[in-house]
Design brief:
- The complex is a heterotetramer of chains A (323), B (177), C (386) and D (186).
- Chain A is built from 13 helices and no strands.
- Chain A has helices spanning 7-41, 57-67, 78-95, 113-121, 124-134, 138-169, 174-179, 189-192, 194-207, 219-222, 232-257, 269-287, 295-322.
- Chain A is globular and about 60 Å long.
- Chain B folds into two domains: 1-30; 51-171, Alpha-Beta Plaits (2-Layer Sandwich), CATH 3.30.70.3270.
- Chain B has five helices and five strands; from the N terminus they run αβαβαβαββα.
- Chain B has helices spanning 2-28, 70-74, 93-96, 131-135, 161-171, and strands spanning 51-53, 80-85, 115-122, 141-143, 158-160.
- Chain B has a three-stranded antiparallel sheet with strand order 2-3-5. In chain B, strands 1-4 form a two-stranded antiparallel ribbon.
- Chain B is elongated and about 95 Å long.
- The termini of chain B are far apart.
- Mean pLDDT of chain B is 76; it is low at 90-109.
- With 186 residues, chain D is an alpha+beta fold.
- Chain D has one domain: Beta Polymerase, domain 2.
- Chain D has helices spanning 15-19, 38-50, 105-116, 151-154, 168-176, and strands spanning 32-36, 53-63, 66-75, 82-88.
- In chain D, strands 1-4-3-2 form a four-stranded mixed sheet.
- The chains are: A mainly alpha (323), B alpha+beta (177), C mainly alpha (386), D alpha+beta (186).
């Protein structure tokens, strides 16, 4: 009987539970971090009242969102309407399965890890599309239209910026990519591929709908974009998935360009977490500094700058490898 | 043209870094917000709360008000209502009392001054223009500095200033500002 | 789901009057009156093709309070707090327009010191207004931080003003024949300090925002308004000066003691939102220049005319008095019949004229640009709706 | 300015108010002020347009003779205010809309329609602007019969006859119109 259950399945289920916990924990930390960083940039204390230095603020937020009325707009297709936040959240959890957190801390070591992540993060756009379409709201519709074209456009330079790393390492396996880099910063791919890193980072911002590319939910233009009508847990799931995708983007960036769990002296998950959070902090810092770009500018950046540069970078890399 | 465009964009990228430097610098500098319940702002001088009656020099439970109702008439929002009774006679003096009775108020024996019964301010409608206090011939009105006035009903902001004055006089000899 | 989003028959009066054009592929979008970038309760009905605006029609009146009727009902002094409520951001300029109109009709002289105090406080208020605009405009463009820095400076100015005027926003400080209270040495020294501080802050603002690449791309060549468009719509203030026309009431019809100060009228020929942005940024510095000169030359004397009447009663006649507000030319057309309240008081709100050109300028722009244009016009809706 | 000798005025009002009672206002804000007939309005406005004026606002008054519309114009490069006053009958409104010359007049005319109920001839979109479309009752700024004042009462000693705009003098005056206090900064 015991043998009938494949060990893979057990690992996967435990892993899923663990990643879900990780996603939740990360979201809590990130919400707090974002608000605190924003506060300090604004020269104000940020959350301060709930718990010591406001540390329990995310829990209070969560409680508030859970307690809110679940509201479906009149005329909306309620099945699709509520499916959208779930579609948004589910792939995020899966992506964490293949991420090597440390030398011995990876749930599934698969040869297509990177492909899996790139594929599953692409599903998010479907959620945006459904949410915007079924909300029966013109702002949501416009937000969804922006979201779809933005995501589709930025997939290309994202892939093109990842390709050089794959050519350099010859594998899609995230663990192997990480171990291909040395322990010291100058042995990381960010040194050999700075352009690819910058393109990757910009694309990651765009893919995760972070400012200055937060057009699908551009507050001052489209009120809240695709999630205008969502309340309570529907909104919370979108919120959670946004932070989850941020973490995924930071994780992939850390693995591909910053050596993943490799670090000076002793390799381990601590290096990985530190790198991930540095990337996240930069994302937050950027958000609280810049205005939002315009929609056509966003696409112009992609088609006129990022894609040509990424292709150029790829060709140069191939040339160097060939030589 | 391409070179120019590239240069422009590189400069643009540099400007973004400069912007991040500014926010980064602010990030490490101390807060400037006041943590309200634990700290309070110092700059309350000149703050105009609702108007209040100035106690009489001799008797802190009495007001300097002579019930001329200049303030009632000037108030743009008619938020002052005043009730006064005249002890005994002399009805014709009440018109003149409004203008220049600075010196006369110290001689209560001669003139039958109207006695202020109540001075009700509907703070809900007050626009704090200060004309009542400016127009008062005896300087019987001034602004309180009660910043922390809060209430749950509108009724709480309909204040009998005379009662408030008497209350203040009872609780403590000195006015609490 | 109703796929034909164009034919919204359930709309209200204005939505129904705003019939879609013959095109089949457009969408009617109702922006406001509750919308983050309309700053209050402006409503704009847009006909959009994708994200491009085909037609835009502002709908006003959501915060209309009939200030003009109030002027006919209240006596002149009773009306004093009202102008501050029209444009709460540059309350003193509106107060000045009202007080000035009545003074001119009465032939009432204002002591020199009072004129200087008015100039100083009005310019401080202008800086405050522009700072808030700056923060709110950046908020429209998606940058959250600048408004916090702007409020940091605003708070200091408001503290300074509060000591003298007693209020922080809706000042009721000017009286017929002067001001309600004198300024003291502490006001002077604090204002000087703040002027010095602001000069440093402008450098920071420039580094953080003005030179920011993304911002420049969002405002340069956006919302081009020619001088002739401004003329046909009667747009004034920074909107006009952003189109390169050096027109400022403080220079064109010098009132008070403005003709004694040396200050520039910033004007930019680009005609775009960046021009209007730069005009306002420069104007704050010019205001500081004026304040510093006024503080240096501050004469002694009365702060209010000793014989200023408590109950103003101008003779019959009419007067038009204009001042330069933060948003443009504030005009007051006062007609008196010799009574104790105005026979008719017409308020010319600069934002009213400035907004009226939005319908023309926004045609063919993206929604994002329309938000940028709307922000660059610096609208204060209570002023437009009065 | 108000340094005239204190006279013992018989008026029962306050002294300071009485002091300014008989004074002619020194400042009106108008550099030129004309009465024009509704027929001539379009031509006059067109001339102002050609002279480079912009429309400041359209004010309106309710008086015994009917309505008085006051069009205020000013100029950017050579400041100087021109007022055009048009008298309107209380019932029959024949004042033309000037929105095709000054598109900015559109809203000002709608505002006058809101507050006074004046119907501008040829206005394309005469809808309530500031008031609620469901507003009931008379326009808010219409005065009571008893409160209305006549032209003489409001503008003592002023010429209220319409100007002949065909006259060369009118064109010359508006072209040369200038605020005496304006100094060229250069």
């Amino acid at each position: 009987m015991i043998e009938a259950i494949p060990i893979q399945l057990v690992i996967m289920l435990v892993g899923l539970a663990a990643t879900m916990a990780f996603v939740g924990l990360n979201a809590i930390v990130l919400v707090y971090l974002e608000r605190k960083v924003a506060g300090f940039i604004h020269r104000r204390p940020g959350p301060y009242e709930v718990g010591p230095h406001g540390i329990l603020q995310p829990f209070a937020d969560g409680l508030k969102l859970v307690g809110k009325q679940i509201f479906t707009p009149k005329g909306a297709d309620s099945f699709l309407y509520w499916l959208a936040p779930m579609i948004s959240m589910a792939p995020a959890v899966v992506c964490f399965l293949v991420i090597p957190f440390g030398p011995h801390l990876q749930i599934i070591n698969t040869n297509v890890g990177l492909v899996l992540i790139l594929a599953f993060t692409g599903v998010n756009v479907l959620a945006l599309c459904i949410a915007g379409w079924t909300s029966q709201n013109k702002y949501s519709l416009l937000g969804a239209a922006r979201g779809v074209s933005q995501s589709v456009a930025y997939e290309i330079p994202l892939l093109l910026s990842v390709l050089p790393i794959i050519f350099l390492t010859g594998t899609f396996n995230l663990f192997d990519i990480a171990t291909n880099q040395g322990s010291w910063p100058w042995q990381w791919f960010v040194v050999t591929q700075p352009l690819a890193f910058i393109i990757f980072f910009i694309c990651a911002l765009a893919e995760t709908n972070r400012a200055p590319f937060d057009l699908p939910e551009a507050e001052s233009e489209l009120t809240a974009g695709f999630h205008t009508e969502y309340s309570g847990m529907g909104f919370a799931l979108f919120f959670l998935s946004e932070y989850a995708y941020m973490v995924i983007a930071a994780c992939v960036g850390a693995i591909l360009f910053l050596g993943g769990f490799k670090g000076p002296i002793v390799d381990g998950w601590w290096w990985f977490l530190a790198k991930v959070y540095i990337l996240l902090l930069i994302m937050i810092w950027i958000r609280w500094t810049f205005p939002r770009v315009r929609f056509d500018q966003l696409l112009n950046i992609c088609w006129k700058w990022l894609i040509p540069l990424a292709i150029l970078n790829l060709l140069i890399t191939l040339l160097v490898i060939a030589l | 043209m391409i070179a120019k465009s590239i240069r422009e964009n590189l400069q643009g990228m540099w400007s973004l870094l400069v912007g991040m430097k500014v926010t980064g610098k602010n990030f490490v500098q101390p807060n400037i917000t006041v943590h309200y319940p634990r700290q309070t702002v110092a700059s309350l001088e000149g703050y105009r709360g609702h108007v209040e009656l100035v106690p009489h020099d001799k008797d802190p439970t009495k007001s300097k008000c002579i019930a001329c109702s200049n303030c009632v008439r000037i108030c743009p929002n008619s938020c002052i209502t005043m009730k006064a009774v005249k002890p005994k006679k002399k009805a014709e003096d009440k018109e003149a009392a409004g203008d220049q009775s600075e010196g006369k108020k110290k001689a209560p024996a001669k003139k039958a001054k109207p006695e202020l019964q109540s001075f009700i301010l509907d703070y809900n409608y007050c626009s704090l223009c200060g004309q009542c206090a400016e127009l008062c011939p005896t300087g019987a009105l001034r602004f309180s500095s009660n910043v922390y006035l809060a209430g749950f009903t509108r009724q709480e902001f309909v204040i009998d200033l005379l009662a408030r004055l008497q209350r203040q006089a009872q609780t403590k000899g000195a006015p609490n500002g | 789901m109703n796929l034909d989003l164009r034919l919204d028959t359930s709309g209200d009066f204005y939505a129904q009057k705003f019939q879609p054009t013959k095109r089949e592929d457009t969408l009617i979008l109702n922006m406001g009156p509750q919308h983050p970038s309309t700053h209050g309760v402006l409503r704009i009905i847009l006909e959009i093709d994708g994200e491009y605006i085909v037609r835009a029609q502002p709908v006003l009146g959501y915060i209309h309070r009939m200030h003009e009727k109030m002027a006919e009902v209240m006596s002149y002094p009773q009306y004093l707090p009202n102008p501050a409520r029209t444009d709460y951001l540059h309350a003193l300029a509106w107060g000045w327009a009202h007080v000035g109109a009545v003074e001119r009709l009465m032939g009432l002289e204002v002591p020199e010191r009072a004129e200087f105090i008015r100039v100083i406080t009005c310019e401080l208020n202008r800086i405050n207004s522009h700072l808030l605009w700056w923060g709110a405009y950046l908020l429209d463009l998606g940058a959250f931080t600048p408004i916090m820095y702007a409020f940091d400076d605003r708070e200091i100015i408001m503290d300074i003003m509060q000591r003298v005027t007693g209020s922080r926003l809706t000042y009721c400080y000017y009286r017929f024949g002067g001001v309600s209270g004198d300024i003291d040495d502490r006001f002077v020294s604090e204002t000087r300090e703040q002027c010095a501080r602001m000069k440093e802050r402008f450098k920071m603002y420039k580094a953080l925002v003005t030179e920011n690449f993304i911002l420049r791309k969002r405002v340069e060549e956006i919302g081009e308004i020619s001088v002739d468009t401004c003329r046909r719509y009667g747009a004034t203030g920074p909107v006009l000066r952003g189109s390169g026309q050096e027109y400022d009431v403080r220079r064109a019809e010098p009132y008070s003691v403005y003709d004694r100060f040396d200050f520039n009228i910033p004007a930019y020929n680009d005609c775009d939102a960046m021009g209007r942005y730069l005009v306002r940024m420069d104007e704050m510095q010019e205001s500081i220049k004026i304040i510093e000169q006024a503080l240096d030359a501050l004469p002694e004397g009365d702060f209010i005319h000793p014989k200023a009447p408590k109950r103003a009663k101008p003779p019959a006649g009419d007067v038009y008095f204009a001042v330069e507000g933060a948003r443009g030319k504030i005009g007051m057309h006062l007609v008196s019949d010799g009574g104790k309240s105005a026979y008719r008081l017409k308020l010319r709100a600069p934002g009213f004229s400035n907004l009226s050109l939005f319908g023309e300028v926004s045609q063919g722009t993206l929604i994002s640009d329309a938000v940028s244009i709307l922000g660059s016009l610096d609208l204060v809706i209570p002023e437009i709706d009065r | 300015m108000s340094d005239q000798a204190e006279k013992s005025v018989t008026a029962p009002e306050k002294e300071e108010a009485a002091k300014t009672e008989e004074k002619v206002p020194l400042y009106t804000g108008y550099d030129l002020d004309y009465f024009v007939t509704p027929k001539d309005l379009i031509d006059a406005v067109r001339k102002l347009d050609q002279a480079g004026f912009f429309l400041e606002d359209i004010s309106c008054l309710d008086m015994k003779e009917g309505f008085q519309l006051v069009y205020h114009f000013d100029r950017f490069d050579q400041p100087g205010r021109v007022g055009l006053r048009v008298m309107q009958d209380r019932e029959n409104h024949d004042v033309p809309s000037i929105h095709h010359i000054y598109p900015g007049a559109d809203w000002h005319e709608r505002e006058c329609f809101d507050f006074f109920g004046i119907r501008f001839k040829g206005h394309p979109n005469l809808l309530p602007l500031l008031l609620d479309p469901d507003h009931q009752g008379p326009p808010p700024l219409i005065k009571d019969e008893s409160a209305r004042k006549s032209l003489e009462e409001l503008y003592p000693d002023r010429v209220t006859t319409p100007v002949n705009i065909e006259d060369e003098q009118f064109t010359r005056e508006i072209t040369n119109c200038s605020n005496p206090k304006y100094r060229n900064p250069s």
